[in-house]
Please model this.
Amino acid sequence: MKAAWIPNLLTLGNLTCGFVSIIFSSLGTPEGYQVGAVLILLAALLDGFDGQVARWLRVDSPMGKELDSLADCVAFGVAPGYLAYKTYLVKISLPLMGRPVELGILLAAVFPICAAYRLARFNVRPSQHSFVGLPSPVAGILVGLVILCFPHGNIPTALFAVLFPLAGLLMISTIGYSKPQSFILKNLHGLRLAGLVALFALLFFLFRFWLIFLAVSVYVLSGLVGCLIQFIEDRRY
Model:
């Protein structure tokens, strides 16, 4: 097997997780929703490794980049959109000419549309030091974590119907987001990195998915706060 296929297999694993997530979500059971959400998180884990492995093996290529975008669109666009529809958006409808129109489908479609646009924009205009718009894996993880931490019925449907498309729109926004993985790989090595992994494993054992949800929420808010600070500074001068 050529070395280039090692990261490509991780990328295809990412896509497979997204596809299987859709199948479990389609079962329409709480257990199926939970598994579907976990598979989105697993897809994000594989997505975090494929690019790094390609660079370590020095086999990164345009094909791998395009394959990664296609996999991400399924795992972090289509799968979260379908999961959100089945759990919270399926019963949202509006009367039109005496017949109910499935508004939930349109709201769910926002996510794959925004993810596809976000990924295409990144391929055309990549950024070395920061992300422009919320990264699609982070947006997908956020949806999966909401389902894991707040099972169906724990969040008012109207609130979810507002926040869900907003998370999708953050992907195509021009809000800047940092690249924490670059900082970790650059500044943490050996015992420091091992210590960080051990600490995260301990906290995850104690708090489960709530720990990841908190970290992802802080990351999402960091971009919004930074945008607000920049807006205030621009108006001041």
Q: What stands out?
A: The first helix runs from residue 5 to 25. Residues 5-178 form a domain with the Four Helix Bundle (Hemerythrin (Met), subunit A) fold (CATH 1.20.120.1760).
